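Board notes (copied after class):
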Amino acid sequence: MTTPYFNNLIGAKALHLLPANDVLIIDARHSLTDFDFGKNAYLEAHIPNAHFLNMETDLSGEKTGSNGRHPVPDLEVLANTLRALGLRDDMQVIAYDDASGTMAARVWWLLRELGFEHVAVLDGGIGAWTQAGFALSAEPSSTKVTTAVGTFTRKPSLNRTVTADEIVAQLPIAAFTLVDARAPERYRGEIEPLDPVAGHIPTALNQFMMNNIDEHGYFKPADILRAQWLELLEDTPMDTVVHYCGSGVTACHNLLSMHVAGLDVSTTGAGIYTGSWSEWCADACRPMTKKS
């Protein structure tokens, strides 16, 4: 692709200008309470040439009952899925949803897990596309994996990931700065609509991922996001920051916002605990709290 690449966010007008042959668009719409919602929404109308990937199957791995609600998928299977959709190393990947990037950020993170850097989230999602006056399509793009038609080459991960065992080991010395992306009432353990246990990991701070979004559903400007993060983290080294959420999806949104803010988020910087609360609370031996 000869035009500049986008590595975190892209606007609707910029997406519209990208050469069709050089961009792979992923529709990541999903509901945590209605697993058919995303596919049905895609079939009704989507951004032209977009391909639908299912959060529960394409973007998550097999659930064992102890590895969380959205475990990381088999990365080679995901790579082959993307190749079947035509992904090349020189392409731009764009992910969108209808939820201010909460689901699309997972695609962003997974592509980076495959070593693919040129991936961005459509700021404002499908709503931004229609508000800009661009048409939708009801014509589906095939997502059936047959032969690997793309030439995408998997590379080393661009992310930093942390396991439950690593967190357990560091808790006595507070070596990690844990950041919980869930709503404050879930963090405090007042409600828990999705997991069997309420509360959070001890020592964790709370930064609700919707704090990244303005009143119109777009990411806040980079300087505001940066100020928010620095107020929360103060002088905390970025390489100690570990994001988590309920199942490893919206934690990616917080990490993305740090990228937008221009903070240090290299492979040795802020990371993700991919199993998140749904994995953590599956083991009663792990410490849990409702105290802020």
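Comment from the instructor: The radius of gyration is 18 Å. Confidence is low (pLDDT under 50) at residues 143-148.
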